[in-house]
Amino acid sequence: MSGGFGIAMRTLDLFRPSVGAAAVGMAQAALDAAVTHASQREAFGRPLSMLQGVTHQLADVAMRIQAARLLVHSAAAAQDQGLTRLGAVAAMAKLFATETAALAVDVAIQVHGARALEQGHLLEHLYREVRGPRIYEGASEVQREIIARSLFRT
Ligand SMILES: Cc1cc2nc3c(=O)[nH]c(=O)nc-3n(C[C@H](O)[C@H](O)[C@H](O)COP(=O)(O)OP(=O)(O)OC[C@H]3O[C@@H](n4cnc5c(N)ncnc54)[C@H](O)[C@@H]3O)c2cc1C
Asked: Is the confidence at residue 23, as pLDDT, over 70?
């Protein structure tokens, strides 16, 4: 059989944005949990949501999640339109969304403090789950390679 490698690569192009979509979901769940916690938890007489050191981290995460969501939408729309050469847009969607999800979960844990590491906590679960997507369907380094090669393709 010939052409199998190309079919496999095109299949990955189709699935990578869906990994990105799952990562956006994890990132949003982490941000939602952090916002709720920061609104309720008081430290030194006021809620964490009054501390810019906390809220500005969450602002950055929110911005990155929105950018990741748009990259996933863009890759999915390109698929729906039947466009070919989806490698770079699919790689961007997966790379940015999965790296963003890792950041979002890390920041959410920081905002929660030690309680996020208790067994059974949502963030304890997400901390574990968010790691795999940066490896499977092509590690982040591989996504960067795909994007870089697309820059020099003639
Ligand atoms: C939760 C989970 C679910 C999985 N599900 C499936 C599945 O359903 N089906 C399936 O077939 N496989 C599955 N895998 C396997 C997954 O596809 C591989 O783990 C992945 O392709 C990386 O291969 P590897 O683990 O052998 O690491 P290696 O290929 O040994 O790579 C190790 C590391 O080297 C670096 N690296 C590798 N290649 C490059 C490169 N070209 N440039 C720069 N750096 C590089 C990266 O940092 C990478 O993480 C799953 C993995 C996980 C974690």
From this structure: yes
